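User: Please predict the structure of the protein below. I'd like the answer in structure-token form so I can feed it into my own downstream comparison script.

Assistant: Understood. Taking the following sequence of 225 residues as input:
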Amino acid sequence: MKTLFMRIFLILMTLFLMIQLWIFASLLWWRTHPVERSMFMRIDAIQYPDETLQHKWRSYDQISNQFKHAVVAAEDGKFLHHHGFDFEGMQVALQRNAKADGIVAGGSTISQQLAKNLFLFNQRSFVRKGQEAIATFMMERLWSKQRILEVYMNSVELGANIYGVEAASRHYFHKSSKNLTREQAIFLAALLPNPRYYQEHPQDEKFRSRKRFIAKYIRYSQIPT
């Protein structure tokens, strides 16, 4: 029994280390290469094989600054000032969720969300959150803040089978993401918590409230230059 336990333990440890090596190698490669497919995109392609996945990479300077400010205002106001984890934000989210007796707020930073999008899946579990933390730690040390935001904007889901701001800009507004107006940028950023639902329900009060929140704080958000 002891020998069997040790074999299982060694197999699990080997698998764990292989996953970390794969993430580390991927992050190194993506320091200078576009991310053509994230894990979320791959899962989407499997779940909806008959639908065309919309995605087109754009470099940081080809994306409207309005969208950069809108995303930071919406998702991670302290983006430039943390090292991947906003512990104060996590505490506030835990308190709000406890008060509401459910999940009404998340404390994930842009870096954490990106780590999940690139390597993991959307199911809540302690294992996933632990792996997300490891990937976030590596990402923050291998990439600059500008690179993290650049990849995030290019890989985030913004509608059914729509990934990245360029594909979203062309889908919703028939224009390049470089030319997004303030109002259009706010609309796209407001989609992020639940893009598939808000895409079909643009008059939803929560969606309209998010747009008002982003419009209020967009001028204060700080972005990498």
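That's the full token string. The mean pLDDT is 91.
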